[in-house]
Each structure stands twice: as C-alpha cells, then as structure tokens.
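From the shared-data thread, chain only:
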Amino acid sequence: AMGVQARAGRQPLDLDLPEMKIILGEDGQIASVHPRPRLDAHRVIEEFMIEANVAAAETLEGQKMPCVYRVHDVPDREKLLGLREFLSTLNLSFTLGERPRPELFNRILAKAKDTEHWEAVNQSILRSQSQARYDPENIGHFGLARSRYAHFTSPIRRYPDPNVHRTVPAHLRGQRKPASEEEGAALAEAATRASERERIAMTAERSVGDLYRVLYMKSRVGELFEARVAAFTSGGIYA
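Structure, as tokens:
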C-alpha cells in the first residue's frame, strides 16, 4: 500500500504499451498474434524491480562508487511542439511549462481514455519522449520520475546489470574504492557501447516481430480488416 501511495505521489509516465505475443502451432506456423496480458501481479513485480534499481544507484552514489546509471532525459522541446500541434486537432490541449513533468502527459492520457483517439494519443506521446540510455553521469530518469536509477535486476539480458552487481557487493565487503580517472573513462566508454548495442538488439527484436506478422498475414491476402492508421511516412502507412 505504501508503494502504491509513493508511486501516486511521484506520478511516473503511465503509457499503455501492450506487448504482442506470437503463438506458434505444432506445425511451426503462426497460430495467432495477440496482446500479452498485463496483470496486477506484473505491476507489483515491476515496482519491486524499480525499487531495487533505485536502491542500487543510491547505494553506489552515496559511497561515491562508480555507477552506470540508466538515464532518461526530458522530452525535446521541438517534439513537444509537434505533439501539441497534433493533440490540438483532437481538441486536447496542454501548456508547455519551463520543464515538463510526466504528470502533464498522464493528464492528457486520462482525458483521451475511453475515446476513439486513445491509441493515437498513446503512440504520439511515446514518440515525443527521449530515448533512455546508460551513462556514468546522472541526469535522472524522466519517465519513472526518479532522480537516480540504475539497471540492476536483469543480468541475463543486459550487460550493465552485472557491472552494478559486481560493484555493490565489492563496496559492502569494503573491497572497492571510488573510481580512478582511468576507470571513469572506461566506464563512460562501456556505457556508450551498451547503449549502442541495446539499440541494435531492439531493432533486431522488432524486425523479428515484423517478420512474423508479415508471415501471419501472408496467408490472408485479400481479406478485409478494420485498422487504425497510426502514421504516414514516405515508405508507406503504419496501421
């Protein structure tokens, strides 16, 4: 209950981004593609993970130990102007203050909830956000409304997590000293590389998802579907 109250007080960005689950049949062909269910239990675990990540960053920062932060900058002003222009066509308005806060977007999302524009508003706000990255220089995490944050809970799929895993126990055992200048430079280079590799991995993941969707629709050419157009580009229409 305290965690729920604390979250409500922070007002992190509350986008609704369903993950698509691809189900393969026994013959290896795609049986269905549908949104992965998001349960209250998932949200509880997410909150625990966020708290663990924050605690790791606070522990290392408090002892002036080297730390690769997970940072998320405030949205670019030009993107926000484009978002405001788009939302005005849906009779949704917002005031651009000196420094936007996640609750600004949450208010817009709340207004759009249960309207036909919900998905378009959700996607347009997502596209207006900066890209999160790894950095030894801490600028905070805008989307989570956290002043310090590090990735600590997924050692299987992210390299920066083991970096934090090694440093926290070493500090607790009194084996590590604050980073030297050389270590600091190496950490910055590792953070940049981790951010680059993350983008490459995300592109690969999306490409595989797109490929499966194309294979799924290949056998349904000629059928009629209802769709919502999300964007126009020089390469075609996103629907």
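The chain has seven helices and six strands.
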